[in-house]
Every structure is written in structure tokens, then in C-alpha cells.
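Methods: example folding runs. The two proteins below were folded one after another, and each record is reproduced exactly as written to the output file, sequence line first and C-alpha cell line second.
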Amino acid sequence: MTRAVRLRATVLVSAALALSACDSKVEGTPQAADTPSSSPSATATGGSSDNPFEGLSPCTIINQVMASEGFPAASPGTVDRERSCASNKPGDANVGVALQDNTGYDQGIPDPSKASRGHVGARNAIIERGSIGAAGQCTISIEVKPNSRALVSLSGNDTTEQACDRVTAIAVKVEKLLPPNT
């Protein structure tokens, strides 16, 4: 898998071990995900003053969640440095988190035919299986407030189903670190 494909998977980061009711397909037309302007910072600060991610760092979230699995420190993404980070453990997987204000959890789904609705904890979520056309890739989009989302993605050497199981477990941990939906 090329680095560009892994990066795309990371930026998509869409999450849920509690992804219950994943049987509802997502309707719509495939479309490219938003790619906001980049900045050298890795703290989610872009967007309006009501940004629920103000002061949160996607790199800190990945580091907290993946440290026990031996992943190296996360680095800002190359496409959306301000709001995304990834950690790549060679021979294992690439895990990414993006904190996107002003984008609903159900917007920008590249291939709705590969997406199902569910929940991560009490939050609405969408899981995308192999949405970038690569085996071993899965993304979960978690609702944070009505018009913001956290994307959690994993791409690696496993099957797509194994990647989805793994990213679901990661998403459950990430969800606990997100601001409340109120």
C-alpha cells in the first residue's frame, strides 16, 4: 500500500466497538472529503469560535490511545496538518485521527455503498469499510455536536474486516476523549 493511500485512509478516519446497528446503509452520491488549509500546528483550531475541538490535539489523542500497543509518537497529517495526525507502526498499521469542526459525521462519505450507520458509545457514527478501495482499511466517523466529527482510521496488513474490528476498538477509546455532544 502506498504512502498516499495510507495517508488518504488516515485523513478519512471515520469510528466504534459499540458500533451497534451497523446494518443501515448510507444514502448519497460519492464525493471527495474536504481538505481544509494546512498549518504547521497539530491542534484542532480551524473553523469558527464554537469549535468543539478548541485546544484538543489529534496527535495527543492518538498517542494516548495507541501507546500501549507500541505505536510511535503521532505526527501531523500532510493533507490537513491543523486537524489530523497519524502514527505508523511498520509491519503493523497506520492509525489516524482527524478532528473536523463544521463537517457533519455523515458528510463527505467517499463511497456510501461501503458505509453503515451505527454508534460509538452514545454518539452517532458511520463505519466505512475499504472506502478508498484498499484491503485492510477502515474508517469511522463519530458525531461531535451536530456539525462536527472525529474521524478514526486504520490501514494495515490485515483484511478489511480485521481492520474494521480493530479501528472500532480504537474508536471506543477515542470517543471517551472527545468533548460532550451537548
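Second run, written to the same file directly after the first:
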Amino acid sequence: MKNKYIPRLAPVAVLLAALLAPAAPAAADQSFILPAGLGCEFNLGFDSKGGNLQTKQFTDKNGDVVRVLSAGKGVLLTYTNYGEDPANPVAGKSITIRTDGSVTSTRVNPDGTQTVTATGHNGLILFPTDVPAGPTTIHYIGKLVYNVDPSTGVFTFVSSTGQQRDICKELSS
């Protein structure tokens, strides 16, 4: 269950962290390997380096965070197929994407869920517990909207426009 909270969208991970911290420049560097069956049918490596992300949170009159905005450019994303053996991940084929920028707006809804609208370059990893059920990893260039329930960790895909790259399919061929 602990793995369901692994960041699935680099800028969103920064935004969620910003809910607990004051607004400041945010580092985009992240690196992790998801076990087979979570992001793809194989162990999926994700590495995010560089970039110049700025994050700002907005509060209501009671001081509660109601929106978080993150914008930046220059993040280098690398997805890697680490094979199917979770006990012995071995790096195989990789895809590296130089992003030309993204803006992510996260609105905190009255029920505590979050609605995320991301534009530009964004990768979204859906787990089997998400809606629709993964494992899927798609890199979007355009607009992406999804909801997050922080109490369960479930992401619910709402819509997208623009280009899509099926990272799992590209890494498995």
C-alpha cells in the first residue's frame, strides 16, 4: 500500500509537497523504480532532473490552502524499462524527454479531493487502484485534467487534449 503514494507526475509531486510548505522555488529532481504491475507490466524507472519550477499556494480567508500553482521549464524526464523481475531490476531501454515547460494548477475541493489541471509536458502514471485502472504511463503534451483523493491515493483521469505517448508500449517494443 505504501507504493500508491509514489509521485506519479513530477510537477504534481512538487505541488502536493507545497501544500505543507511555504511557497518557494521547487526542485524537480526525483528518481524511483515502480515494481512491475504498477506503472507498466515491467519495473518502470522514472528520473526527473533539472528544471526551474516555481510553486505558489493560495489560501482562503481562514488560511486553508485552496489552490496551488506550479510553473516551470527545462525538466529532463527519463523513463526506463527495468525488466519484470522485482527482486533484480536491470536497466534496459530508456526514453528521455526534454520538456519545454508546464503549468499545473491544483484546486482543493470542498470535500478534500483535488482537481489537477496540467498543461504543457506532463507524465501521468496510473496504478491498478486508479480510475481507469492501470498500469499505464502516458506522457502528455497539451492539457490533462484528473482528480486525486488524498485519503485513498486514488487518481481519477478526467480528460486530455493534445498529444499522448504510451511510455509502456514504447519501452516494451
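Comment on the second run: Helices lie at 10-18, 167-172.
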